[in-house]
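Private note to self, pasted from the team thread so I don't lose it. Backbone tokens:
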């Protein structure tokens, strides 16, 4: 099993590192010293949420660190891609090598990168670590240049891009969730569901929870690929998150939200939106404005809930329309 490391793992990680260092030194590989990597380095990795361990029958047999930023020495060579995840400190218990543990950790790192929209996985190794160099070649890494400041060779594997198949869009009112959903539906040729159209009857009469569930599930059972927008955190929220492979959160500030609401009201004044029930005219009243002003607390709960899916699903958080449009243009 591969999982995130905890502070309770530090002693076992330190023992694993020391055993690995001694085995490498015995093989004439001066990649690490007896002072690095050790417990204090792993503690830093754990606190950053970047350290993963391979555990079997309560034995800790392997570990790796995944960072989203490149070390400064990496800038000394030319890489294939800019948006990359970097694998550091790959450790395998010396008496448990050749059992597929390194491959399992590598597959996990690649899947993590794929789920989070990274273009490549980078790693470096000592020139004399021929076993590791052969392993990387076997797993389709490109051998790049010598990283002089580190006395390492850089390797990079491109990550196959995967188009989103089930997208949900969350965020503050007025941020353009529906507009983005329609853009994605058109660009990716996906069916689209606006949850407001599921929740509201004629003249802004809300449906009951059972009707909402039946309507939404009818859509998801008919379509294996789709884009869906709307929060409704009290209605099948976890079910929607579990079904999705891509989660987008538009967390613009209050001024941007209010501007979006005013622009939308002006555009649809005295008219019905095609994706809403009859009688649901655009309107800004006191109740709605109170909802908007209080939404920040709800947004933080949404962010906290969706954060649990980091690594399992593609998760995008946009602070403004410019960053969202840059992402959209690269799809």
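Design output:
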């Amino acid at each position: 099993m591969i999982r995130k490391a905890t502070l309770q793992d530090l002693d076992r990680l330190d023992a694993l590192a020391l055993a690995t260092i001694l085995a490498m030194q015995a093989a004439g590989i001066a990649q690490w010293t007896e002072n690095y990597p050790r417990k204090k380095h792993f503690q830093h990795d754990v606190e950053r949420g970047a350290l993963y361990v391979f555990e079997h029958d309560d034995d800790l047999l392997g570990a790796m660190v995944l960072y989203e930023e490149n070390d400064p020495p990496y800038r000394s060579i030319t890489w294939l891609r800019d948006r990359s995840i970097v694998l550091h400190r790959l450790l395998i218990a010396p008496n448990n090598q050749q059992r597929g543990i390194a491959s399992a950790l590598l597959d996990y790192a690649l899947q993590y990168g794929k789920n989070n929209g990274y273009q490549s996985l980078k790693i470096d190794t000592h020139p004399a670590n021929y076993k590791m160099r052969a392993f990387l070649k076997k797993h389709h890494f490109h051998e790049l240049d010598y990283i002089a400041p580190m006395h390492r060779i850089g390797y990079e594997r491109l990550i196959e891009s995967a188009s989103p198949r089930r997208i949900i869009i969350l965020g503050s009112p007025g941020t353009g969730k529906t507009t983005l959903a329609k853009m994605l539906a058109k660009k990716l040729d996906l069916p689209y569901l606006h949850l407001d159209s599921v929740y509201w009857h004629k003249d802004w009469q809300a449906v009951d929870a059972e009707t909402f569930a039946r309507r939404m599930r009818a859509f998801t059972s008919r379509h294996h690929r789709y884009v869906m927008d709307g929060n409704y955190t009290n209605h099948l929220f976890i079910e929607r998150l579990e079904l999705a492979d891509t989660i987008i959160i538009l967390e613009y500030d209050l001024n941007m939200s209010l501007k979006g609401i005013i622009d939308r009201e002006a555009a649809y004044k005295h008219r019905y939106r095609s994706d809403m029930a009859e009688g649901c005219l655009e309107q800004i009243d006191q109740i709605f404005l109170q909802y908007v002003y209080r939404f920040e607390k709800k947004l933080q709960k949404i962010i906290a809930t969706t954060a649990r899916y980091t690594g399992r699903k593609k998760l995008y958080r946009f602070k403004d329309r410019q960053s969202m449009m840059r992402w959209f243009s690269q799809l």
